[in-house]
Amino acid sequence: MSDSDESGGESDFYALPGDLMMWILIISELLVFGAGLLAFMAMRVTDPAGFTAAQGHLNATAAGINTVVLVTSGWLAALALKASEAGQVARVRLLLAAAASLGMLFLWIKGMEYAGKAAEGINFETHTFFTFYFLLTGFHALHVLAGIVILALVGWKASPRNLEVGTAFWHMVDLVWVLLFPIIYLLR
Amino acid sequence: MTATQGWLVLVALSVGSTLLAWSGSTGAVAAVAILALAWVKAQIVLNVYLGLSQVPAWSRGFAFVLGLFMLGAMGLAVAAGAV
């Protein structure tokens, strides 16, 4: 490889938007969720009827609404990044507050869903489906909570660099949900 | 694609996949269709929201790994339907 090739490759490597450490975190999280979802799919092969019956207890409509809530929140975060690049700090904070509020709405809907399962007497041990359901959606909900805190922090220290890093985490949370939602809630 | 265009497509695809499930469609074809919609949505989040369209080499790398994941998920969905 020539020197110019090497420098080109290096510049590509560092051209990722945001901070490299955040990307390492994002890739790690995606691999963990990806492995969990594939394990869920593999277990489903062993008992498709049981998984379909268990899935019948889920509210796909509420999860669909939550999908729209989260992708809308991601859109607001993307707009906040654009506003920070234009130096519009007040607009950045307004957009991030709206994005974080939608994140809280997502968690409220998720909480209602868990309360419904508890009322039905459904828990981790009810069926393998619910073991994966609670693990994957619960782990994701914790990431939503972490993302809300990160959005608040980057809203407080609203530099373009901070916005790029913070919104990247929020979009990772979005990305995981768009893969998790159909696999857990929709496939029959 | 701008962030707003990406958001509109994401909302439309999310509604589309929910309606597909609502319609009572089951089996391998419905599963592959629902996962294909998720695949497109994930690509939009990566390229538009996360800005990977600005870094084609990374975009291709993520697309390759995502493709392996989605093909694996589709294969397992078809296998579950065949049991």
From TrEMBL, chain A:
User: GO CC: one term?
Assistant: plasma membrane
Gene Ontology molecular function? cytochrome-c oxidase activity
Gene3D superfamilies for the chain: Cytochrome c oxidase, subunit III, four-helix bundle (1.20.120.80)
Topological category with respect to the lipid bilayer: Multi-pass membrane protein
Residues in Heme-copper oxidase subunit III family profile domain copies = 1-188
Regions that span the bilayer: 20-46, 58-78, 90-109, 130-156, 168-187
In terms of InterPro entries, this protein maps to: Cyt_c/ubiquinol_Oxase_su3, Cyt_c_oxidase-like_su3, Cyt_c_oxidase_su3-like_sf, Cyt_c_oxidase_su3_a-hlx
The GO annotation for biological process reads: aerobic electron transport chain
Coiled-coil regions, chain positions: none
What keywords are annotated for this sequence in UniProt?
A: Membrane, Transmembrane, Transmembrane helix
Instruction: Name where it's found.
Output: Cell membrane; Membrane
Asked if the record carries the keyword Lipid biosynthesis, the reply is no
* One Pfam family in the UniProt entry: COX3
Keyword Transmembrane found: yes
Family membership: Belongs to the cytochrome c oxidase subunit 3 family.
The identity of this protein, by name, is Heme-copper oxidase subunit III family profile domain-containing protein
Native organism is Thioclava indica
Automatic annotation (TrEMBL), chain B:
Q: Keyword Nucleus, does the record have it?
A: no
Cellular location(s): Cell membrane
Kindly list the residue ranges recorded as spanning the membrane: 7-24, 30-50, 62-82
Top-level lineage group: Bacteria
Q: Report membrane topology.
A: Multi-pass membrane protein
- Gene Ontology CC terms, in alphabetical order: plasma membrane
Q: Which UniProt keywords apply?
A: Cell membrane, Membrane, Transmembrane, Transmembrane helix
Q: What is this protein called?
A: Nitric oxide reductase F protein
Lineage, opening ranks: Bacteria, Pseudomonadati, Pseudomonadota, Alphaproteobacteria, Rhodobacterales
